[in-house]
Write a structure and sequence with these properties.
With 98 residues, this protein is of the alpha+beta class. The protein has a single domain (2-93), classed as Beta-grasp domain (Ubiquitin-like (UB roll)). 22% of the residues lie in helices and 19% in strands. It has 3 helices and 5 strands. The chain has a 5-stranded mixed sheet, covered by helices on one side.
C-alpha cells in the first residue's frame, strides 16, 4: 500500500483525515499514484493535475523521502521506501506571495 499525504484543502474535498492508503497496481510512479488517487477519490480529478494534459496544477509540489520530485518525469519510479510503504508520497500546496 502506498501512503499519500494531501494538503488540508484536498483532504477536506476528499472527506479524508490523515494519510490516504492506495493500492497502486504495476510500477509505482507519480502518474500511477495520482491515477489511483483520482480513481479512489473522483472528486479530486482536475485538482492536482489538468484533466486534459495531466500536467500538475500550479502551486502543487510533490515530495518523497525528503526529495522534491515535482520536476521529475511523471513515469519515473518513486523511491523504494515509498513503494514499501515506509515513507509517504506527499502532495504539498505551495505558498506564494510577497
Amino acid at each position: 500500500m502506498i501512503r499519500v499525504v494531501l494538503p488540508p484543502h484536498l483532504r477536506m474535498l476528499a472527506h479524508v483525515r490523515g494519510e490516504v492508503m492506495l493500492d497502486v497496481p504495476g510500477q509505482v510512479t507519480r502518474a500511477s499514484v495520482l491515477a489511483a488517487l483520482e480513481a479512489q477519490y473522483p472528486m479530486l480529478r482536475g485538482t492536482i493535475r489538468d484533466h486534459v494534459t495531466e500536467q500538475r496544477r500550479p502551486f502543487l509540489r510533490f515530495f518523497a523521502c525528503e526529495r522534491d520530485l515535482t520536476h521529475e518525469p511523471p513515469d519515473a519510479p518513486l523511491p523504494a521506501a515509498v513503494v514499501a510503504g515506509a515513507e509517504p508520497f506527499v502532495v504539498l500546496g505551495a505558498i506564494a506571495g510577497g
